[in-house]
Amino acid sequence: MPSKEKYYFLILDFKKKKLHLTMKKTLLILFCFGCLSSVFSQQILYKPMNPFFGGDTFNYQQLLAEATAQNDFKEASSTSSTQTDLENFTDGLNRQLLNSISRSLFQEQFGNQDLAVGTFVFGTLVVDITPSSGGLLINILDSTTGEQTQIIIPNQ
Question: Which of 91, 104, 131, 141 has its CA 20 to 30 A from that of 85?
């Protein structure tokens, strides 16, 4: 039986040789992997799918179908189809009354002549009439809410 010291030296010597062999194998594997990866490497190419960004136009239908399938928004049903005949009649009557009132106010302000250029105030509404190259420009401003409407009457 060998002595303890000799036994430990044998174990250390074996571990050195094993470590040396393991290092050689690791370097050999890394070298082979490096060679093989350079043989099979290729240029990376990006091609967009979306036709708006240069992709194939045949992808449009598929992308639209996917977007439609993911859309959770439900459109509210229109209220006009649920109105009764009485409600429709009341709305029509209100529109006719407002139309006749606005026509009478317009007649009082302008008479039977054409629209005059200038600024006119009807309560909270400010009406500004100016000629432009495209025709007569009418700006209507609601001074309480700040809402503005622009009407262009083209030249004849």
Answer: 104
